[in-house]
Design goal:
heterodimer, A: mainly alpha, two-stranded antiparallel ribbon, 2 strands, 70% helix, B: mainly alpha, 14 helices
């Protein structure tokens, strides 16, 4: 952050304009207007567009959730009835369990693997490091739709590569999208494949910010690599790790496209809703069935509250356990 | 560096093995995509699954183009238009606002900046249902306005440009511009924007890729008659469940431009991501 003095516009450097030359004084007042108002002009596009298409819909979601709202136009105020209905909604809890199940199956292995890879990439004398970094990050470049299409095929029951590999070690073919655990595994593997490289890079950036002399001092004291990783790298990495965990939480709890494409566009996520996530349930209520938009809005807010609480919880947990 | 730390930071063959394994895992689905996209339809049902590319790509891609239900070419053109417009706008509005927040003084600056940072933490899905209704009311359903206008600005873009501008643009240079009688916009255009070019390139690439790949919202407001590329791919894969070589040929065509962009600019993109991570 720079000092206030350096960001201040320069004081009028020129001596006060000669009143006998009106042209110059008009130019001067134009400059004053420019200095005073142009900053607002430059930030206005963001606030106008975000206000209309970002902030307003968000508030409106809250308002809608207090109504029996129909996207075609009818609505009546019902207070918190939508929220109390959620408590006994079987599909809502089903979607919540699915979302957290897939979230755990994707976030935990993903972050452990990213930590491991980042530690490998952090070696000083590593050759071809740019190539490694790029190759590991590449999955993040492809669209979710493409990933889900390709993985859908890899997870095919009859001629998919994964079942063929399982068959080689004597396991019967799995009908991946038919059961909970298997569909969760399939969806989580797409998420893992796409995001491990991204998290690796973020963690690597955090590792490279740790001063090297700490390691040198430790190695002179006889600490081995493993010890150094636990005593230096991990504690110093806490802020980055918190950042990555929270980012993964926000993304993971909003999971939508991977399960949707894996279900071939079926918004219920499998015949028995085996892998319908909260975001899919919200979409089903609010957009596929226009007449339950108010209830869908309540799901949206419930989701947001869960994300916020869970991020906070993760934040506290990660900070405590690593410190 | 002394010899103790040299030993410590050396890279063992095991490290390379692990990294190569990770790279193979990262690349395999791309390779598999090409294998299926170049195979004839019946070769796909083989056991063991095909492991090498075939020669049917032209044939498969021909079927994509002939497929009236997918509107693949329309999707490709639409994606190009939407991604370009959104990218250009995010870079311009982001650099203008970033410049203002970093280098200009005005009342309420800190509060406004803080409000932008807070909005970065709110999930977009929170406003999804009303936004869908708004698009209907505006008469934008199934038009490119619906997938362009709401994304013309980005909080992340403003924040990133602000961070970069506060370091990369020296105050002396701006003062010199003022002394020479340049107004604020000329200073932005002639001094600030050129200095922001590296950050603008990274922001532009990230925005382009994100817009090109976005799925949920276009799927909600577009129909198969006027899709973006991802929407076209989705309807192709849902409707033509068994014709995998056709779907994969289309998926490959939709992915190749991104991979090329990434191979050319990957170094900058990765640098930008890593730099952004340390500062935030």
């Amino acid at each position: 952050m720079s000092l206030p003095a350096t960001t201040a516009p320069p004081p009028p450097a020129a001596p006060p304009p000669d009143p006998s030359t009106p042209r110059r004084s008009r130019a001067h007042s134009l400059t004053r207007l420019d200095l005073k108002f142009s900053p607002y002009l430059y930030i206005a596009p963001f606030f106008v567009i975000f206000g209309v298409f970002g902030f307003y819909p968000m508030l409106r979601t809250a308002w809608m959730s207090l109504h029996d709202w129909n996207l075609v136009g009818d609505h009546t105020f019902i207070g918190f009835d939508n929220y109390t209905a959620l408590v006994t909604d079987e599909y809502f809890w089903n979607a919540t369990v699915n979302t957290f199940g897939i979230f755990l199956l994707s976030t935990v292995p993903q972050l452990l693997l990213a930590l491991f890879l980042a530690n490998l990439l952090n070696r000083t004398f590593l050759r071809a490091r740019t190539v490694f970094r790029m190759a590991i990050f590449m999955p993040n470049v492809v669209s979710v739709a493409a990933v889900a299409i390709v993985f859908g095929m890899l997870f095919q029951r009859d001629f998919g590569v994964f079942n063929w590999l399982l068959g080689m070690v004597g396991v019967d073919p799995v009908d991946w999208d038919a059961q909970r655990w298997s569909s969760w595994t399939a969806v989580a593997s797409m998420v893992n494949w796409r995001w491990t490289g991204y998290n690796t890079l973020i963690l690597l950036a955090g590792m490279q910010a740790i001063p090297r002399d700490l390691y040198e001092a430790a190695s002179i004291d006889g600490a081995n690599q493993w010890k150094q990783f636990w005593r230096i790298t991990l504690p110093m990495l806490t802020p980055t790790f918190v950042f990555v965990v929270i980012l993964s939480t926000i993304g993971g709890l909003q999971l939508f496209t991977e399960p949707l494409v894996f279900a071939n566009g079926n918004i219920t996520g499998g015949d028995q809703r085996e892998f319908q996530t909260l975001a899919m349930y919200m979409y089903e209520l609010g957009i596929e069935n226009l007449n339950t938009a108010g209830y869908g809005a309540a799901v949206a807010w419930a989701m947001f509250i869960m994300i916020a609480l869970f991020s906070l919880l993760n934040f506290l947990l990660v900070r405590r356990s690593v410190k | 560096m002394n010899s103790a730390s040299q030993r410590l930071w050396r890279t063992s063959p095991l490290t390379y093995c692990a990294l190569v394994l990770a790279v193979l895992f990262s690349i395999y689905p791309f390779y598999y995509m090409i294998v299926i996209a170049t195979r004839s339809l019946d070769a796909i049902n083989d056991v063991p699954p095909p492991m090498t590319p075939g020669d049917s790509f032209g044939d498969n891609f021909g079927r994509v183009l002939d497929n009236d239900a997918a509107n693949f070419v329309t999707g490709l053109i639409n994606s190009l238009i939407v991604s370009s417009v959104v990218t250009l706008s995010v870079v311009i509005t982001g650099s203008l606002a970033g410049f203002a927040f970093a280098k200009l003084r005005f009342r309420g600056r800190n509060v406004l900046l803080l409000s932008i940072i807070v909005t970065m933490m709110i999930p977009t899905q929170l406003g999804l249902i009303p936004l869908w209704g708004m698009i209907q009311d505006l008469g934008w359903y199934d038009t490119l306005y619906a997938v362009t206008v709401p994304f013309l600005v980005s909080a992340f873009g403003v924040f990133m440009m602000r961070q970069y501008a506060s370091q990369a643009v020296s105050d002396e240079l701006i003062e010199a511009g003022r002394v020479d009688g340049a107004n604020t916009f000329r200073i932005y255009w002639n001094i600030v924007l050129p200095a922001l070019r590296p950050a603008a390139a990274v922001l532009g690439l990230l925005t382009f890729m994100e817009t090109w790949n976005s799925y949920l919202w276009p799927y909600a407001v577009l129909t198969p008659e006027n899709p973006t590329l991802q929407v076209s791919l989705a309807f192709l894969s849902y409707a033509y469940y068994t014709d995998y070589s056709q779907v994969f040929a289309a998926t490959a065509i939709g992915t190749v431009p991104l991979v090329i962009v990434f191979i050319v600019f990957g170094r900058q993109i990765i640098g930008g991501i890593m730099e952004g991570a340390v500062k935030s």
